[in-house]
Amino acid sequence: GKRAFIAGIADDNGYGWAIAKSLAAAGAEILVGTWVPALNIFETSLRRGKFDQSRVLPDGSLMEIKKVYPLDAVFDSPEDVPEDVKANKRYAGSSNWTVQEAAECVKKDFGTIDILVHSLANGPEQTSSGDIKKRLPRCYFCFELLFCFPSQAFPANYESRHVTKLHMCASISLTYIASERIIPGYGGGMSSAKAALESDTRVLAFEAGRKQNIRVNTISAGPLGSRAAKAIGF
Ligand code: ZID
Predict the structure, then answer these.
(1) Which of 31, 138, 191, 203 is least enclosed by beta carbons within 10 angstroms?
(2) Res. 39 pLDDT band, cuts 50 70 90
(3) 3-231 CATH choice from 3.40.50.300, 3.40.50.2300, 3.40.50.720, 3.90.870.10
(4) 14 CB less than 6 Å from ligand 1?
(5) What values do phi and psi take at 134, rounded to 5?
């Protein structure tokens, strides 16, 4: 069977959860990357059976999540984490949650993955314009996808980035048509972030596809009443 890492699940309402279920139904092993501040409640809810109804697969069995990894995709590596975040109670209880460290943990635990799903969005930051340029694009970009690609798949200007060589075959992310057309309300860096995501997807599909046979795709999603969508009033 295939092994999938889905970045961006913290409840059972979003795209990440739905994609995980489809992959599980197709026989894949499911690993999840969960935003650090949401980790506790997600794992507790999972353990207490709060998601059991939505874990039911078409054959009647329950989706198993093999392992949940804490992740904050804003930060590539420990050097990027500011002191106030390090000291924050919601972060201090977890470790190895930068992109680079999470990738290393996955590699240590499982060696390889076959599928990477990027289902990251951001809640509060999306609407607070002050923070948006710093945080939002990092959450929307394809850059996090890099964490699993072999570095030789990348054009020279990517080389300086931290890249854990974790073999994989295919990746998908989720985009939105506001990248190309004006969708009232979908501004403040979100439409441009999606445009960048699509542009990165094209470049990476070419580079990684040619050199490593890795497929890189993004899907333009329809409306779904997820936490992220509600946070921006959609
Ligand atoms: P979600 O809240 O379920 O998933 C986002 C996840 O990202 C959450 O689990 C967060 O905890 C996690 N996260 C946030 N920040 C970080 C971080 N720094 N590190 C790690 N994890 C983090 O929301 P979702 O399922 O809507 O979002 C998944 C993807 O789908 C995002 O890329 C969205 O942009 C994309 N998407 C969603 C929708 C939608 O309707 N839900 C649409 C298009 C794309 C859309 O907005 N008509 C109107 C609107 C839309 C489509 C059509």
Answers:
(1) 203
(2) very high
(3) 3.40.50.720
(4) yes
(5) -75, -45
